[in-house]
Amino acid sequence: MQLLRHGDDDALLDAMAMLEANGRFGWRHTPPELMHVTIEALNRAGGDHAETARYLIASQPVLPSASKAGTMP
After folding, report:
1. In sequence order, what E strands does the chain have?
2. Cβ atoms of residues 52 and 44 within 8 Å
3. CA-CA distance, 25 to 20, in Å (whole number)?
4. Torsion over CA: 71, 63, 6, 39 (sign)
5. pTM score, two decimals?
6. pLDDT band, very low/low/confident/very high, at 64 (cuts 50, 70, 90)
């Protein structure tokens, strides 16, 4: 969580690479706040990193929306 408060882009990308190498990076393993900050760092880095950011955004899980159809009287 210190990365969220004090991490610069290089630290975030290094942490992502280390976690990914150990199978511990991604929407299933990483807190959403850290995922979003890492995606922002990837976008700022540009090039292949921006491509990775687009992939992560596309693979973000979608929460089911609450349907109001069954709750109205």
Report:
1. none
2. no
3. 5
4. negative
5. 0.77
6. confident
- Provide the phi-psi class of 47: left if phi over 0, else alpha when psi is between -120 and 50, else beta: left
Contacts of 41 (CB under 8 A, 6+ apart): 9, 12, 13, 49
CA distances from 3 to 7, 12, 47, 63 (A): 4, 7, 23, 26
Phi-psi region of 63 (alpha: psi -120 to 50; beta: other; left: phi over 0): beta
> What angle is formed at CA 35 by the lines to CA 41 and CA 27, rounded to 5 degrees?
145
Q: Which pLDDT tens digit goes with each residue over 6-44?
A: 668 998 999 999 999 999 999 999 999 989 999 999 999
Residue 32 pLDDT: 92
Contacts of 16 (CB under 8 A, 6+ apart): 25, 38, 42
